[in-house]
Each structure stands twice: as C-alpha cells, then as structure tokens.
Specification:
Layout (H helix, E strand, L loop, with lengths): L5 H13 L27 E3 L2 E3 L5 E4 L14 H13 L9 H12 L4 E5 L2 H16 L3 E5 L26 E4 L4 H11 L3 E6 L17 H12 L2 E5 L12 H4 L6 E4 L10 E5 L4 H6 L10 H16 L2 H22 L4 E4 L6 E4 L7 H11 L3 E2 L14 H21 L7
Parallel strand pairs: 3-13, 5-6, 5-7, 7-8, 8-9
Antiparallel strand pairs: 1-2, 2-3, 4-10, 9-10, 11-12
Helix pairs in contact: 2-9, 3-9, 5-6, 10-12, 11-12
The structure holds pyridoxal-5'-phosphate.
Length: about 425
C-alpha cells in the first residue's frame, strides 16, 4: 500500500491563495525540489525523533532533517526542556541574557576560535563574514568555489537572478574545487584586490555527486590565503557538528579565519553563529550589524543544551556509523538488482544517485518517489542527514522500504536492469 495525500493537497490549494508559491523556497515544490510532487506530502502535522507525520496521518522516516537543523531528533526532551526553562525567564528582552555569554564561551572553546557573533539564519552570518573581510582587508573581490551555496543575499547570486543587479555579483571570482592550480592562477591574476575565499568544507552541491577534499588540498589553500592576506572563510552551515564537534576545518586538518554555523546549532531553535580569530575581532566590532531577534535568549539556552548533549553522546561517531550502515545497505541491495546506485559525500550527509547511462534523473526520481510513498522521506536533488534518533532498527527499516522501491523500479523497467 502506498500513501495518498488528499489533505496535503487541499491545504496546498489554500496556501497557494495566500502565500507566494504556496510553500516557497526549497521546502516547497515550486523550486523543483520535491519531484515528482505527486509523491510528496507538503505539510507536517507533527514530528518526533527521526519521524514526521503529515496531515493525512502518513508516517515518514525523515532523512532531510529539516534540511539540517534536526540533529538530536525532533522534539528532543533535553533541548526543549532548556528552551522552556528559558522561556519562563524571558526570551526577547531589552538587554541580552547572560546565557548569550555562556553560549559564546562554550562554542568558541569547542570550535577553537576566539569570538562568536550570533544572528538567526545562515545567510546572515555568511553575509557578515564577507563584510568583515572587506572591511579588514580594504579589498573587494570574493573567491567562490563553483557550484557553491552560501544563502540568497545578492552577493551570493549570479547576474541573471531575478531581483538582483549585475553589479551585485561583479566582485566574484570562481574556482574549481580540489584544483589548487586554478586557485593559484586566480589569485595571481587578482592578487591586489581579493578580500576573502569562501567555501564549504566539501562540495555538497545539489543534483551532483558530492565531492570530498583531496589529500593536501585544504593545507595548500590555507597556505595561499595566509601568503596573500586573503581571509579564509569556511561555511560550515550544513556540515557543522555532523563531521566533528570541533568544526569541519579541524576535521579536515586546517584552521579557518572565520567559520559559520547554523543548522545543527540548536536542534531547530533559530540561531546562527560566526566564529573567528582574534585578528578579525576589531572588524567584527566595527561593521554595523544587528537584528531584532538576534539576541533572543531561548535559542541560546537550547543551543547550549544541544551542543553539550552532542558532545556527551559522541554524536559524530553515531552519524558516521549510521550513515555508513545505511549507504552500504542501500548500495548492496541495488547491486543485487543491477541498479547503479552511488552514495557520495560524507556518510553523515550522504548524497544518493542512480547513475543513469544518459546522465539524467529519470530512474533516480522514480525510485525516490517509490521510497517516499512508502514512508522514507528522501529527495532526488540534495544530500541527506543523519540525526541522533536514527537507530540501527530505523536504518534497517529504511533499507527494507527502499529495497521494496528498487523492486518496483526493476519491475517497471526490466530492460534497463537486466543482468
Ligand atoms: C552551506 C550553506 N550556506 C548557507 C546557507 C544559508 O542558510 P540559511 O538558509 O539559514 O540562510 C545554507 C542553507 O542551506 C547552506 O547549506
């Protein structure tokens, strides 16, 4: 029996009347993320641990984890208890709560940086990192790694993006990941005008196999940035606290000047952080930057409880183990059926793709749809996430459901998978 979504669809029709796109951005079908949209629910009714339930009562094991924030499991009792305690004391107050300082002390110590600055979303802190770099260096240009994503602010966009000006992206330079010669050439050609280099710790782009750094790549990038006075920014918004509790720069053996965190910081409570080295603290104090809710206390209390619990439970080992159990199980089942399924990236944030000979997503999307309609929420375009609530039993249930999806695929396309 596969799921039906009548109440979801009815709610989407209502949403479309009063909300642009009904559900906008990557959480809705308009961006082409949920393909085919007939396979997906559009709304959640409740969530607990590794699972969500939609308005039709369908239950899903959720490997999107709210696109990252769900790191403990939804409605984690310890994180929620810390938040509720803080609600009783006050949340958005004229003066910041002392819990902001507790959180900054804990976080900076954990990730080996000298200061922390808190905002709300990932894009707030990536934007701030660029402003700080430009102010500190007095230079304009930003080196991006092709196929990057650092949010939706105009400086992150391409010239033809609706709502942005050509001038917004005129200071971007673009290099290929893992290609140190490309970076050297780019620096050489622009060396008097580069403020910063910004990149994720590895390439976890959409609709492409994810790519880990080659041996020695980050060490050489670090050396070049130091040599040419370029501020080195690591955007750890997606990977942060999934690869290592000390920050993904440490995980890959180097020390970034600025590092951004967001998604997994507070198990869904809204806070992001920019952490940096001492030499940039003056610039961070001088660049004007603030927001109405940036010092609200509840997310700080939740974040503190969240990070402490992740450390106490050796979380990153769990993510690695469960991610490996799932991806090896899926690849084994696929191989037995002659389906060329590949998992790429880090096991804690695996990306899946059936490698269609023609290089398109036809068969992959069909398999993903069969999994979703049976209760495993995955997507065809994006990396997935492991959370603490994913136990071996949940992983094995997932493999069984996804294998059923593979059998449907083979039944529908016997010619494509014949041995
Ligand atoms: C690597 C990376 N940087 C920046 C962002 C932007 O974060 P936000 O959507 O919270 O502004 C994201 C969000 O997916 C991200 O994955």
């Amino acid at each position: 029996m596969t799921y039906t979504y009548n109440k979801n669809v009815q709610t989407m029709i209502r949403a479309g009347r009063v909300i642009p796109s009904g559900v906008y951005g990557h959480l809705g079908p308009a961006e082409g993320c949920m393909i085919p949209s007939s396979a997906y629910p559009f709304f959640a009714a409740k969530a607990k641990g590794a699972e969500i339930w939609d308005p039709d009562g369908n239950r899903f094991i959720d490997y999107m984890c709210a696109y990252g924030p769900n790191i403990q499991g939804y409605c984690d009792p310890d994180v929620d208890a810390a938040a509720i305690e803080q609600i009783k004391l006050g949340n958005c107050t004229t003066l910041p709560s002392t819990v902001m300082v507790d959180f900054a002390e804990y976080l900076t110590n954990l990730v080996h940086k000298d200061w922390a600055f808190f905002c709300k979303n990932g894009g707030d802190v990536t934007s701030f990192s660029i402003m700080i770099s430009r102010y500190y260096t007095g230079k304009k240009k930003i080196i991006f790694v092709k196929n990057y994503y650092h949010g939706v602010a105009p400086w992150t966009q391409h010239p033809d993006t609706p709502g942005t000006l050509e001038d917004d992206c005129k200071h971007g330079l673009y290099v290929k990941f893992n290609d140190i010669e490309d970076l050297k050439r780019t620096i050489e050609a622009n060396k008097d005008d580069i403020a910063c280099f910004i990149a994720t710790p590895y390439m976890h782009g959409n609709f492409v196999d994810n790519e880990l750094p080659e041996e020695g790549y980050w060490k050489q990038v670090r050396e070049l940035c130091t040599k040419y006075g370029i501020v080195m920014i690591i955007d750890d918004i997606r990977c942060g606290f999934r690869l290592s509790m000390e920050g993904s720069d440490r995980y890959f053996g180097f020390d970034a000047d600025l590092i951004t965190f967001c998604k997994a910081l507070a198990n869904g409570y809204n806070v992001s952080a920019l952490c940096g080295k001492e030499f940039l603290k003056g610039a961070a104090s001088t660049v004007p930057y603030t927001g109405s809710y940036w010092m609200s206390a509840v997310p700080f209390a939740a974040g503190l409880a969240n990070l402490k619990k992740l450390v106490a439970n050796n979380a990153c080992q769990h993510f690695y183990d469960m991610g490996t159990r799932l991806t090896t199980g899926l690849e084994k089942a696929a191989k037995e059926r002659n389906i060329p399924l590949k998992a790429s990236g880090h096991p804690a944030m695996f990306y899946l793709r059936i490698q269609d000979e023609l290089g398109n997503f036809r068969l992959h999307q069909e398999w993903v749809a069969e999994c979703v309609k049976r209760g495993v929420f995955i997507t065809n375009h994006h990396n997935h996430f492991i959370c603490m609530a994913m136990t071996p039993a949940i992983i094995d249930e997932t493999i069984a459901i996804c294998t059923e999806g593979m059998d449907v695929l083979v039944r529908n396309h016997p010619e494509e998978f014949k041995k």
